[in-house]
């Protein structure tokens, strides 16, 4: 029982750290004119690995909701599930179109793909849609974000200050 | 072993989606006779610097990177405020409604 609670706590912490990393990485990668094309492309490729870890950590929720989605599930879970699928499809389109029009990653691997205007416009469109979906995803998980940040970031910092002030008083 | 299997499932899902997208875009661009360039069609593109465009490949300064980060953060924050606040307000209202006992 205690082992399961510790495992869940560790998973939640890992999830929070990875989610914050993905969020910041996407915010930087979303503006290639500011970050530069090399940073934009390599950051996006590494974000793909982080997304796989994010999906692995949410695996139980994905499986449970996939089984219940047609029958017993409330409207918020359904909206969340549909939004997550939309995000998955959009991020796949975003990554693929990005790889096809790549100027750094694919040429560095010795691959030169034939490019077209369609891929460029698809990349721009999917990036704009992704920013919207990212906002919605964050909004729907806002309560979880606030609770987890309080529990794993603010409370330990607060405890650190309270113990140090107690030490000062006793000294 | 379980994790490796799950990773494989996720990667297969990615590959299927990419395959579908690639075939759809390939089919639509060939039916529209859209031009296809090798190496990004740089030979045909105008001199961007000369026409007042900034070269994306060079990247911006630290300030520019910060501006991009702030701009996207503001967009996400606006969406969060527009969705999360009304959602929480409705949830609190629903909780506050007293339940009638017959």
Search tags:
heterodimer, A: 171 residues, mainly alpha, 8 helices, B: 102 residues, 2 helices, 64% helix
Helix content of chain A: over 70%
Separation, N- and C-terminal Cα atoms of chain B: 55 Å
Number of domains of chain A: 1
Order of helices and strands of chain B: HEH
Low-pLDDT runs of 5+ residues of chain B are 40-54
Secondary structure: number of strands of chain A: 1
Largest sheet of chain B: none
Overall 3D shape of chain A = globular
Task: Name the shape of chain B in a single word.
Answer: extended
Largest sheet of chain A: none
Q: Round the mean pLDDT of chain B to the nearest integer and report it.
A: 73
What is the number of helices of chain A?
A: 8
Assembly classification: heterodimer
Structural class of chain B: mainly alpha
Could you tell me the strand content of chain A as a percent range? Answer: under 5%
Query: How much is the radius of gyration of chain A in Å?
Result: 20 Å
Give the low-confidence spans of chain A: none
Mean pLDDT over all positions of chain A: 85
Count of beta strands of chain B? 1
Q: Could you explain how this protein is built, in words?
A:
- The complex is a heterodimer of chains A (171) and B (102).
- Chain A is mainly α.
- Chain A has one domain (8-160).
- Chain A has helices at 2-29, 32-35, 37-57, 59-68, 75-100, 105-108, 117-140, 142-170; one strand at residues 115-116.
- In chain A, α1 (2-29) runs antiparallel to α3 and α5 (75-100) packs antiparallel against α7.
- Chain A is globular, with a radius of gyration of 20 Å.
- With 102 residues, chain B is mainly α.
- In chain B, 64% of the residues lie in helices and 2% in strands.
- Chain B is extended and about 60 Å long.
- β1 of chain A pairs antiparallel with β1 (36-37) of chain B.
């Amino acid at each position: 029982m205690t082992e399961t609670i510790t495992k869940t706590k560790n998973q939640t912490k890992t999830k929070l750290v990875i989610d914050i990393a993905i969020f910041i990485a996407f915010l930087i990668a979303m503006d290639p004119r500011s970050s530069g094309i090399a940073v934009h492309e390599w950051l996006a490729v590494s974000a793909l690995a982080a997304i796989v870890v994010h999906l692995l950590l949410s695996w139980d929720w994905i499986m449970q909701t996939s089984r219940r989605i047609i029958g017993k599930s409330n409207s918020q879970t359904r909206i969340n599930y549909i939004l997550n699928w939309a995000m998955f499809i959009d991020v796949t389109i975003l990554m693929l179109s990005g790889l096809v029009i790549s100027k750094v990653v694919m040429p560095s691997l010795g691959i030169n793909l034939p490019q077209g205007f369609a891929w460029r416009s698809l990349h721009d469109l999917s990036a704009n849609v992704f920013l919207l979906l990212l906002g919605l995803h964050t909004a729907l998980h806002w309560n979880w974000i606030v609770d987890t940040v309080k529990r794993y970031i603010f409370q330990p910092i607060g405890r650190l200050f309270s113990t140090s002030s107690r030490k000062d008083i006793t000294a | 072993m379980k994790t490796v299997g799950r990773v494989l499932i996720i990667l297969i899902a990615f590959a299927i989606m990419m395959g579908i997208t690639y075939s759809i875009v390939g089919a639509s661009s060939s039916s529209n006779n859209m031009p296809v360039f090798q190496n990004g069609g740089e030979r045909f593109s105008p001199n961007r610097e000369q026409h007042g465009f900034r070269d994306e490949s060079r990247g911006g300064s630290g300030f520019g990177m910060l501006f991009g980060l702030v701009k996207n953060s503001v967009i996400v924050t606006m969406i969060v405020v527009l969705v999360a606040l009304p959602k929480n307000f409705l949830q609190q209202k629903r909780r506050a409604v007293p339940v009638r006992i017959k």
